[in-house]
Design brief:
Elements lengths: L6 E5 L2 H19 L4 H4 L8 E7 L4 E10 L2 E9 L8 H15 L4 E7 L3 H6 L3 E9 L2 E9 L2
Parallel strand pairs: 4-5
Antiparallel strand pairs: 1-2, 2-3, 3-4, 5-7, 6-7
The structure holds coenzyme A (COA).
The site of coenzyme A has 18 residues, from strand 4, helix 3, strand 5 and helix 4.
């Protein structure tokens, strides 16, 4: 039997779903990866656009955040629930991030990729910029993408 996971990707809707977004980020970044809460919660969520993947039965599966800074979008906080990984959900959120970036009048996306996940972003059209560096004690590399 094929294990198909039905889900939709869209902007976050309502306060309860936003609370679930923050809980998922805490589980993934702080509990799983050991990022300090003070770095995960950076005070910029209020100005961000939050995208989510939600299963057909309403479970929050994944999230990411877009911050519009002039013609550039800072993409961050991409987290997929552990039992929903390797099914293309992050890739679907990256595609929606492109659409929202265009719709918002920006043409460039930038992010700090954890180096282990670099191929995820390369497959979505991002290119590395500069050297590997440490952030929250995790190896990262800056990447960017220009939309046509
Ligand atoms: C990284 C993460 C967001 C990927 O989400 P995902 O939904 O599993 O990603 P996708 O299924 O869209 O993966 C697409 C491709 O990216 C690459 N990729 C994804 N996860 C990877 C991993 N853990 N290691 C290496 N490559 C990976 C693969 O090439 C994958 O294709 P494949 O499954 O056919 O091999 C998810 O593992 C996660 O939430 N990790 C913890 C938080 C984190 O590290 N966030 C990213 C910060 S930069």
């Amino acid at each position: 039997m094929t294990d198909v996971l039905a889900y939709e990707v869209r902007r976050v809707q309502g306060e309860a779903e936003m609370a679930a977004v923050l809980e998922l980020r805490r589980d993934v970044f702080c509990v799983e990866q050991g990022v300090p809460v003070r770095e995960e919660v950076d005070g910029r969520d209020g100005e961000g656009m939050h995208l989510v993947a939600v299963s057909s039965d309403g479970e929050l599966l994944a999230t990411c955040r877009l911050l519009f800074v002039g013609p550039t979008v800072q993409f961050s906080r991409l987290a997929v629930r552990q039992n929903a990984r390797r099914r293309g959900i992050a890739t679907a959120l990256l595609a929606l991030a492109d659409e929202e970036t265009r719709a918002g009048g920006a043409r460039r996306l930038v992010l700090h990729a954890q180096t282990y996940a670099r191929s995820l972003y390369e497959a979505a059209g991002y290119e590395p910029r500069g050297r590997v560096f440490m952030e929250a004690a995790i190896e990262h590399i800056a990447m960017e993408k220009y939309l046509q």
